C-alpha cells in the first residue's frame, strides 16, 4: 500500500468536503485556550518544536478545514474528585468563547441546530464532559450539566470514579458497572444525553451497551486490533457499540494509532477505519480528533486545516462518496437526532 506524507487534495474532493456536513466529536481546544490564555477567535501558529503537538484547532483553522460542528470537551484534571465546580467554570469559559465568536459559532444541543448553523455558515459548538469525576459523586449533577447545554458525558477519564472504571486501571481483573453508573446511564437516557464510553474499561462497555436504551458513542477512540493498547476498543467493544446503533469517532493521536515509531502517516487513521468497517460496517464510523488534547497528530495532518486530506485519503483508499459523507458527519447526525432530538 502506498503511504505518503504528501496528499494532494483535488478540487473535486475539496468541493465535496466543503459541501458535506463535517462534525468532530471531541476537540480539547478549551484546554489550550484556558492554559495559555489563547484567543480561539484568532489563528495561532505553534512555536517551532511544539508542532504538531498543539494549537491544532482555533476558529479560523476549523473553518478552513471545513469543520461544521465541533464538540468541545469540558476537561478537568482527571484525579481530583471535586470536579463539578470546575466543570461549571469551564462551561462558563465555553460560553464566553461562544459569545466572543457569535458571528462564527453557534451553540447547539440538537441535530436541527447543527443544520441551521451550516446554512448560516457558522460552526456549531456542542459541549461534552470528559469523565464523571466532574459529577462530584452526585448523579443529580447530570441534570445540572444538561441544563447548561452539555449533551454527552464520558463515564470515566484516565481515572475511575464512583460511576465507572477507567480503561487505564492497573487492576487486571474484571470490572463491573457500579450501581451509581447504572443510575447515571438511565438518567442520561431519560434526559436525552449521549452516553460516551471513550476511556471506559472494556467490561463496562459491554454492560453499558446492554443497559442503554439509546445508541452509545465513543467520542474519540481507535481499534485495539490495529494498535493494541488499553485505550483502544476491542472487537467485542466495537460490536457492542455498533449493536446499540452508536458511532465511534476516529482519534488522530499517533500514540494510540500506531506503535510503528515516530509519527506515522495519516494512512493509519484509515487503517483503523478499515478494521471497524470490516467488523460492523461503515454506519458506525465518525470523526473524533482529540485535537489539542496533548496529542501528536500523524504526518499529513498538522492541524484542523488539513482535514480535507483525510477525506481525500478515504476516497483514494476506495471508500465511496456516500460512505465518506457518513463518516464525516451523517452517521453521527443519525445518532444525535435519535438521542437529543
Ligand atoms: Zn480523552
What does this structure look like?
This protein has 341 residues and is of the alpha/beta class. The protein has one domain: TIM Barrel (Alpha-Beta Barrel), CATH 3.20.20. The chain contains 13 helices and 9 strands. Strand 3, helix 5 and strand 4 form a beta-alpha-beta unit. 54% of the residues are buried. The structure holds zinc ion. The site of zinc ion has 5 residues, from loops.
What's the helix and strand layout?
Blueprint: H1 11-19, E1 23-27, H2 29-36, H3 59-64, E2 69-74, H4 83-100, E3 105-107, H5 111-120, E4 123-130, H6 141-147, E5 150-154, H7 179-191, E6 194-196, H8 202-211, E7 216-221, H9 235-243, E8 248-250, H10 254-257, H11 267-280, E9 285-287, H12 307-316, H13 321-340
Parallel strand pairs: 1-2, 2-4, 3-4, 4-5, 5-6, 6-7, 7-8, 8-9
Beta-strand content bin:
5-15%
Please state the structural category.
alpha/beta
Low-pLDDT segments, ≥5 res: none
Radius of gyration, in Å, reads: 18 Å
Q: The CATH topology is what?
A: TIM Barrel
**Helix-strand pattern:** HEHHEHEHEHEHEHEHEHHEHH
Total count of helical runs of at least 4 residues:
13
Small-molecule components bound: zinc ion
- CATH class (first level) name: Alpha Beta
Shape: globular
Summarize model confidence as the mean pLDDT. Answer: 94
Keywords:
alpha/beta, 9-stranded parallel beta sheet, 12% strand
Short structural summary:
The protein is an alpha/beta fold. It has helices at 11-19, 29-36, 59-64, 83-100, 111-120, 141-147, 179-191, 202-211, 235-243, 254-257, 267-280, 307-316, 321-340, and strands spanning 23-27, 69-74, 105-107, 123-130, 150-154, 194-196, 216-221, 248-250, 285-287.
